[in-house]
Amino acid sequence: MKKYVFKIGQVVQASGTSPKLPRGHLRVLRHLMPTPSGVPRYCVKSETETTERVAEQDQIEPVVR
After folding, report:
1. Model confidence over 22-62: pLDDT tens digits?
2. Which of 42, 39, 48 is CA-nearest to residue 60?
3. Among 4, 18, 24, 32, who pairs with 14 as Cys (CB 3.0-4.6 Å)?
4. Which of 47, 56, 53 lies closest to 4, judged by CA?
5. What local confidence, expressed as pLDDT, does residue 16 receive?
6. How far apart are CA 15 and CA 60, in angstroms?
7. 38: Cβ–Cβ under 8 A, 6 or more apart, which residues?
8. Are 41 and 33 in contact (CB under 8 A)?
9. Which long-range contacts (CB under 8 A, 24 or more apart) does 18-25 make?
């Protein structure tokens, strides 16, 4: 199993390989159970939407500010 890379409260963005996530900044709300293959998953929320979404670790990347 891989380690969780992103911290709760961290601002991330969708990587280029994730068409299901909205563009723009997303905030990590909580860590979720990993996939059966051990990939960490996160509950994320866009700063412009009210919908919470599930993102696998390879679908998001850190925002460089």
Report:
1. 889 999 999 999 999 999 999 999 988 999 999 999 999 99
2. 42
3. 18
4. 56
5. 80
6. 5
7. 1, 2
8. yes
9. 18/55, 18/59, 18/60, 20/53, 20/59, 21/53, 21/55, 21/59, 21/60, 22/46, 22/48, 22/49, 22/53, 24/48, 25/63
- pLDDT score, position 64: 81
What pLDDT shows up at residue 19? 79
| Structure tokens belonging to residue 14 | 């969708």
Instruction: Identify the bridge partners of residue 14 per DSSP, sorted by sequence position.
Output: 60
Tell me the C-alpha distance between 6 and 62, whole Å: 8
User: With contact defined as beta carbons under 8 Å apart, do 56 and 10 qualify?
Assistant: no
Task: Report pLDDT for 40.
Answer: 98
Task: Output the six-digit token pair for 50.
Answer: 């009210």
CA distance 46 to 49: 5
